[in-house]
């Protein structure tokens, strides 16, 4: 859609996933056997026909750069427009901006050169299938200054404690923004705003020494802005801790959860050509996601295996997440474990965590 340009702001997203974010930002953390967390919001923007997407990054983004490349999986490898990965620029001695305002100030040419009139602004921690075209139509219908995207949660989880809540009246107007923990309207850190108003508010924030767009430009001005609330009703997960990552990953072993995330519209990711998974005669696999390139000789139950994992004969894996190219030798027992990429577990080892707190092994570790 030519009227929309996308901004994915990773600047304020802290690395809260423990060992999984030792060497990468949260948006680059692998998920569901073959994806990265960034893939979901990127795919939502792609399905909305967004032709220009900017990523605000500051830390640990080498893995993210490798994954995104020129943006081909999301149809963003274009001669004009496409994918822009924008670290902050510190070369302007007159720049007084800070935080995410620094990204907006130092990359104004991205906004000015783009022909789109509206901005979709998002983070990467809320996984969903939001229809941005429908949200944009709702924004126009409401004649709002800004439309905040939210969802109603039936059962609140610990990860929701950090989320902002919205009060929305029967006319779709946001009447309050707060942190009341028992409130079920979760703000998904996504909003739509006219580009001119967005840049104007950012300039005001910088002039007043402010650094956070939602807090300083929207929340503080809620009495002066017409703020609409667009309710999203599909799959939703918040990944802002190791526990939430583990639980939401394991939930995908339930067919209804998996289908609600992946069947409505495809999720695009970096393409890697691998041979099909190979199951040896000694393999026993049940209720698991197994990616291409795996070779299974042991027992795998209720687990997620990424590409190229080797499970030797006699190994037993239960309720675990094993990332790309890990090698699990014979007579190993893993339960409630997360192994990051390229981990080697030698023969006879036993690692066990708890369903509420999995045991995590960092990338490139040999045990």
TrEMBL record:
<feature type="domain" description="Nucleotidyl transferase">
    <location>
        <begin position="20"/>
        <end position="177"/>
    </location>
</feature>
<protein>
    <submittedName>
        <fullName>Glucose-1-phosphate adenylyltransferase subunit GlgD</fullName>
    </submittedName>
</protein>
<dbReference type="InterPro" id="IPR029044">
    <property type="entry name" value="Nucleotide-diphossugar_trans"/>
</dbReference>
<dbReference type="InterPro" id="IPR011831">
    <property type="entry name" value="ADP-Glc_PPase"/>
</dbReference>
<dbReference type="InterPro" id="IPR011004">
    <property type="entry name" value="Trimer_LpxA-like_sf"/>
</dbReference>
<keyword id="KW-0320">Glycogen biosynthesis</keyword>
<keyword id="KW-0548">Nucleotidyltransferase</keyword>
<dbReference type="Pfam" id="PF24894">
    <property type="entry name" value="Hexapep_GlmU"/>
</dbReference>
<comment type="similarity">
    <text>Belongs to the bacterial/plant glucose-1-phosphate adenylyltransferase family.</text>
</comment>
<dbReference type="Pfam" id="PF00483">
    <property type="entry name" value="NTP_transferase"/>
</dbReference>
<keyword id="KW-0808">Transferase</keyword>
<feature type="domain" description="Glucose-1-phosphate adenylyltransferase/Bifunctional protein GlmU-like C-terminal hexapeptide">
    <location>
        <begin position="282"/>
        <end position="350"/>
    </location>
</feature>
<dbReference type="GO" id="GO:0005978">
    <property type="term" value="P:glycogen biosynthetic process"/>
</dbReference>
<dbReference type="InterPro" id="IPR005835">
    <property type="entry name" value="NTP_transferase_dom"/>
</dbReference>
<dbReference type="InterPro" id="IPR011832">
    <property type="entry name" value="GlgDAde_trans"/>
</dbReference>
<dbReference type="InterPro" id="IPR056818">
    <property type="entry name" value="GlmU/GlgC-like_hexapep"/>
</dbReference>
<dbReference type="GO" id="GO:0008878">
    <property type="term" value="F:glucose-1-phosphate adenylyltransferase activity"/>
</dbReference>
């Amino acid at each position: 859609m030519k009227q929309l340009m996308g901004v994915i702001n990773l600047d304020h997203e802290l690395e809260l996933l423990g060992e999984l974010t030792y060497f990468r930002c949260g948006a680059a953390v692998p998920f569901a056997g073959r994806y990265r967390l960034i893939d979901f919001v990127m795919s939502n923007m792609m399905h909305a026909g967004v032709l220009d997407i900017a990523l605000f990054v500051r830390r640990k983004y080498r893995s993210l750069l490798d994954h995104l490349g020129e943006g081909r999986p999301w149809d963003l490898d274009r001669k004009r427009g496409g994918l822009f990965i924008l670290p902050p620029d510190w070369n302007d001695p007159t720049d007084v901006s800070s935080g995410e305002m620094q990204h907006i100030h130092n990359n104004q040419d991205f906004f000015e050169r783009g022909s789109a009139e509206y901005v979709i602004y998002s983070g990467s921690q809320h996984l969903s299938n939001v229809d941005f075209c429908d949200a944009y139509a709702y924004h126009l219908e409401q004649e709002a200054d800004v439309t905040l995207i939210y969802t109603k949660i039936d059962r609140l989880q610990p990860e929701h404690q950090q989320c902002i809540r919205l009060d929305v009246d029967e006319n779709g107007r946001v009447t309050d923004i707060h942190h009341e923990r028992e409130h079920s309207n979760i703000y998904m850190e996504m909003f739509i705003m006219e580009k001119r108003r967005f840049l104007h508010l950012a300039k005001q924030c910088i002039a007043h020494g402010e650094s956070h767009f939602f807090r300083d430009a929207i929340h503080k001005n809620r009495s002066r802005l017409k703020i609409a609330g667009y309710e999203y009703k599909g799959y939703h997960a918040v990944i802002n801790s190791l526990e939430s990552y583990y639980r939401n990953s394991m939930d995908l072993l339930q067919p209804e959860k998996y289908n609600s995330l992946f069947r409505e519209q495809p999720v695009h990711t970096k393409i890697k050509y691998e041979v099909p998974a190979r199951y040896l005669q000694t393999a026993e696999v049940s209720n698991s996601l197994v990616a291409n390139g795996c070779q299974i000789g042991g027992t795998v139950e209720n687990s997620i295996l990424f590409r190229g994992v080797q499970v030797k004969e006699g190994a037993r894996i239960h309720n675990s997440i094993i990332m790309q190219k890990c090698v699990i030798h014979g007579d190993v027992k893993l339960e409630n474990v997360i192994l990051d990429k390229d981990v080697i577990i030698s023969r006879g080892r036993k690692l066990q965590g708890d369903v509420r707190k999995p045991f995590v092994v960092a990338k490139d570790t040999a045990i």
